[in-house]
Amino acid sequence: MQKKKGHLLTDARGYQVNFNPMRDVNLVRLFVFPTIILLIVINIFPLIWSLVLSFSDYSARLPTEWGNNPEMVGKKNYVALFTDLEVWNKFITTGKYVLMSVGIEMILGFGLALLLQTKFAGRGIIYVLLVLPMTMSPVIVGLMWKLFMDPNWGMFNFLLGLGRVDWAQDPARNLYAVVIVDIWMWTPFVMLLSMAGLSAVPQYLYEAAEVDRASWWFKFTRITLPMTYPLLLIALIFRVMDAFKIFDLPMGLVGRGSGAPQLLALEVYIETFLTWRTSYGSALGYIMLIAIIAITSILIKYLNKAKQ
Questions:
Q1: Tens-digit pLDDT profile for residues 158-174
Q2: How many CB atoms lie within 10 A of CB 224?
């Protein structure tokens, strides 16, 4: 039998063993439990509360002590959303944006990773310059490109040899402006994950292909692409989730005016914090959440098959 004396344990043979209550499990609990509680407070509770509000008639303009308590209305908000043609148009616009931005980012990011696999002079400097955009705040990036695309004195039109084209405020072009800026900012993310996948490809596979005099297309389709496919899917999952709910970049670049691109995240902001239709905006936010979960679940299914 062991007897505890302060920070020492005495075993049956009389030997004393150091006992530290701040070690191992106790130390893990000390740091993990407060983190879990914090995550529940700032994440789980707002998620549950917004779900309750989505089935009610509530506006956050007036405090609840003034008699503005949520009144449950069932599925009324969701029915109104699914029967609103403007909401469906926003879903189509958001899907179009996700396909354009993420698709081009995947192609450019993987292509840049293939180029940077080759050692050449100045490779490190180019690598650092390419990674810099993703380290910046999206709002700052949006404001910076808004000045860069200014039709009067911005350099974007001048470099492309165009006239006075208003990319940010023209409703026919501002969606493509957001796509261009998003590609500039997040292509390095795809490039980094692609480089991680390329660095994990065993070199003996390429050496065996060289012995068999395989073409570059054979090596790309049978070695490079299959070996990097799981990491490319991971990059695709992260980029689809982030692009589907993008808000800060178009807010900094275009703003929230009537000519702003019809993206779902901007619509949630307008309904919840400008028109104060809090319940309606919460319902739209949950529809977005379900759509993101459905899309990512399909991609994760393919990721699991790729791992097998």
A1: 888 888 888 888 888 88
A2: 19
